[in-house]
Design brief:
Radius of gyration of chain B: 23 Å
Strand content of chain A: over 45%
Order of helices and strands of chain B: HHEHEEEEHHEEEHHHEEEEHHH
Largest sheet of chain A: 16 strands, antiparallel, barrel
CATH architecture of chain A: Beta Barrel
Largest sheet of chain B: 3 strands, antiparallel
Number of helices of chain B: 11
Distance between the termini of chain A: 26 Å
Helix content of chain B: 25-40%
Strand order of the largest sheet of chain A: 2-3-4-5-6-7-8-9-10-13-14-15-16-17-18-19
Largest interface: A-B, 55 and 49 residues
Oligomer: heterodimer
Structural class of chain A: mainly beta
CATH class of chain A: Mainly Beta
Shape of chain B: globular
Order of helices and strands of chain A: HEEEEEEHEEEEEEEEEEEEE
Helix content of chain A: under 10%
Number of domains of chain A: 1
CATH topology of chain A: Porin
Shape of chain A: globular
Strand content of chain B: 5-15%
Chain lengths: 412, 398
Amino acid sequence: MKIFTSKYLKINLLILGTFCFSSSFAQEEESVTNKKDDEIELNMDAVFNRPTLSFDKVPVTVGGYLEANTMYRVEEGITDGLSFQARRLTIFMAASISSRIKFLTEIEFEDGGKEVAIEFAALDVALHPMFNFRGGIVMNPIGAFNENHDGPKWEFVERPDVAVNMLAATLSNAGFGAYGKTYSGNWIFGYEAYVTNGFSSKIISNEEDKTYLPAHKDGENIFEENFSGEAMFSGKLAIRNRKIGEIGISYMGGTYNKFLNDGEELEDKARLDVFAIDWNTTIKATGTYIVGEAAWIWVQTPDTYTQQYGNKQRGAFMDIVQPVYKNKIFEWEDATFNVAARFDYVDWNVGRFAETNTRIGDQIMAVTPGISFRPTPKTVFRMNYRYEWQKDIVNNPAKQAATWYMGFSSYF
Amino acid sequence: MRMKNYLLGSLFALLVLFSCDVLAPGEPEENELLDGPVEGLSMAESRRFIEGDVAFNDQIFTVETGLGPVFTGTSCVSCHAGDGKGHPYVKFKRFGQILPGVNEYLDQGGPQLQNRAIPGYEPETLPAGAPYTDLIAPIVTGLGLLDAVSDQDIIDMSDPDDLDGDGISGRVHWNTRPDYVTDRPGTISLNGKYITRFGKKARMYDLLHQTADAYNQDIGITSYFEPYDTYSGDKLSPEIDRQTISDVVFYLKTLKEPIPRDQDDPDVMAGKALFQSTQCVGCHKPTLETGYSSIEAISFKEFYPYTDLLLHDMGPALDDGYTEGYATSSEWRTAPLWGIGLSKDSQGGDYYLLHDGRARSIEEAILYHGGEAENSKNLYQGLSQPEKDQLIKFIESL
């Protein structure tokens, strides 16, 4: 199918294809069980919506993905040169223990194995379509990206700022809860609700010098101990119309500080609350795919603490992906070229200084145009150019940086 | 066909690489930045500069690494963004001393009010009736050059009894110093006191004194040099190692001086002449020279800080009723004017000038001057508006 037939564009796409293919690799056609696009339902299904290898008479499926890229960054005219990154190797395994009991885990090796993390390891018990038990290490259902973060699904090398640097994606915690779905015509409704371990005081005492939820992941024993001693709730409601798209609203909140120790009150109880809204849709007429999420965080910090650590944050991202050429290329049926653009925005400290009543800065904005080539839906080669403006806490002139990425991400 | 594709692919790759230069943000002009080393450092010195740069600009203190429990900032850079002047959100109070040499509030948290506290702790509060002054952090560039000015040169600029009759009687701050500092070449002492030169009231002897004190009083970090916890008063194990402090001191010594801008602009040149004729140069000495320094790049060098490093009576408008060392409450060290035009870039786009940021423009800062600067202020007020604009444009070019 040719979506765009300009001669000029074809020539350019041919050039790009050649370029991508010049760095291609040998990929075997494997036996995979992969859902078709029209079977994709809700973001919450992402954990199961992955290609995996299955073996005869063995109730275990195995899969994973690999991401690697080159990066060249120039900040204020200064560069540290070109670097090559093997960002992550993720392996997931699933097992059907019985007809209603499943186990699935996702283990991620980041930065060449420097960090190894269990992102997901849960037992699912199907009791009713509207009520399934899930327990273990679960991904908190906040926003869309946290649960639907596999590299090959995205056209950009970098993950969205709001998801990674504000909401702490990939965020998972030990706990349990329930999820379910129901259907009516073209409508699908789903929910998730979990109680898990919560955050720690690292979110307001960290080397980022800002309220920073991802700092929680630097803590030790986060899957063994609940820092605050109180459960954190996270839940999501999502609704999808197969002809229109999906929208989800999610919440996560709880106490994050250790206010008691051996029964003694150490400090006032402090909580955080996170609210997110996410959406995705495909415009049928043009094939344009739009996905995004916005989030708001409220964190109680002592009035006597530094304003460096804000009590309100907000951020958003939106991707627009436009397939521009879909055809058989080098034996790949339905190979697709896309052009894409991402908008990122995060304000880590919303508010005004008490002393001057001027706006607090500490924010980043970025735009990332890109081109991607998908020889198959499971593999993406992508070239991105990101331009960002980052302001420090006092709102001094933004530091500008440009980054070029070229890389791939592929399921295996 | 295959060869053609590869050639086209290679061409595309070249286009991508070429775009790196076109689409990358350019480097700011050297004279628009405060950070960066002085010229002429050896490779070993450059390496040490970077070590200090990392400690100064990147090391954030947390509860786990010793922050507080009471503090005013979490890092060096929180008060000195881009090595420039501080923003009022990290303004802090020093309190307790009315008379030279005596602070009666040392047992009540003085001399500095740590107005922030980590969770679970209460910050200090100002004792009722205690005299105080608010302070914001100064620019930190070019400090190595100021440090290397010889004591004798400072004495030579002083005129405590106004013998020349110009109404300006700058005096040296003879003050005590901690035992851990060492003499600079040519140190001169008088009755067991030394010439101190850093700080708004010139209470600090050298950059080690300044740095160790700031880690302790501003961030609540104990060190080999300043081992007493500001919260408990107890002597604690160092929370920062000596090497890091030494690297930061080296960094501060080798930060380049601010580079003036637009010096060929006719208005700037006219403003420079007015700066002379209004006798601003009586205190804001344009040119100083360093003596010997173990860092060759700053040794025996002429530079242009627009200060005399002396204490001057600035009159009642700037007399907060609080003092330090042996200065009086109306005496302040002449603030170096270099880099003042770049202050906005470290203060969030606005001016917060003078010791506490009360002046929101250069003109307002001038009008706060009194005492020994009363005559210069009056001469400024007698200028025509275009002349005032030229004078301010010159100051902003520094």
